[in-house]
Design goal:
With about 270 residues, the chain is an alpha+beta fold. It has six helices and 16 strands.
């Protein structure tokens, strides 16, 4: 039922209403969620709610270009960060989720023995919905995992155990420039119409109830820090998981982050690892 509701919402959000009505809808959405539009076009310029959700920055953001800096891939709120214990992580306020369950077949058995750092970034409906490469990296694979579409708001995380590992998600397994592995987990949610990825149109989310798990592997698929990767069609969550020996997250819990903001630092740098 949640999947059907989300697909209907996505369909309605994509409708282009007459200009006067669309402007009214957009302005009500912006005022209702108190969205800062200073980096974007005026609300009346967007032809649908989906276009407003997926709005592009009018000017590129500046970010730390030093090789040691790892930046936030999106705008949002850091709900939790920490170091996993026995492949368990915290979603919010002591509520756990399983990292092995979250990552599924994207995590090899030998990788489960490493100490892992993680951070959960929640994108609310008011946030910029596009996501970017947080560092120079090579994408090794994308794993689509079908699942539920629970809300990922804090209230839902407090009610549904292991929520991130139950929801539909796409896991990008990446190799960073210092040789470490980074998993970027894009978690689907109620009313999130789609998750889009620029580099592979085969990745289809929230498409139908019978979707099966799918693994896509890549050769030489490289991105520079800040490169555009794709977008949500409404707010959701990005979970970042990395091997502790290579990356240390620094962002305090319960703080807002912006795409381009430094949120971690590399422990070692090798220029030729990707």
């Amino acid at each position: 039922m949640r999947g059907l509701i989300s697909r209907i919402f996505g369909f309605v959000a994509a409708v282009r209403f007459p200009r006067v009505l669309q402007t009214f809808i957009n302005e009500k959405y912006v005022s209702g969620f108190k969205i800062d539009m200073s980096e974007f076009k005026e609300p009346k310029e967007y032809e649908s709610l989906t276009a407003l959700f997926t709005r592009e920055l009018q000017c590129p953001r500046n970010f730390d270009v030093s090789p040691q800096a790892f930046i936030s891939p999106s705008d949002g709120t850091c709900l939790e960060r920490g170091v996993s214990k026995e492949l368990k992580a915290i979603s919010v306020k002591g509520h756990e989720y399983g990292i092995a369950e979250l990552l599924g077949d994207s995590m090899e058995r030998g990788e489960r023995d490493a100490e892992l750092e993680y951070v959960n970034i929640y994108l609310s409906p008011r946030d910029y919905h596009r996501y970017h490469a947080p560092c120079d990296m090579r994408i090794l694979s994308a794993l689509y995992v079908p699942g539920e579409l629970y809300s990922v708001a804090v209230s839902a995380l407090l009610k549904v155990p292991n929520l991130y590992a139950k929801n539909e998600r796409v896991i990008l397994k990446c190799k960073m420039r210092n040789g470490g592995i980074l998993w970027m987990v894009f978690v689907g949610a109620l009313n999130v119409g789609k998750m889009r990825f620029d580099f592979d149109a085969r990745i289809q989310t929230n498409a139908c109830a019978s979707r099966a798990e799918a693994l896509y592997e890549y050769e030489n698929l490289k991105f520079k820090k800040g490169d555009h990767l794709g977008n949500f069609e409404l707010g959701s969550t990005i979970v970042l998981v990395a091997q502790s020996e290579f990356l240390k997250f620094e962002t305090p819990t319960d703080t807002s982050v912006k795409f381009g903001q430094k949120i971690a630092e590399f422990n070692e740098i090798s220029q030729n690892s990707i």
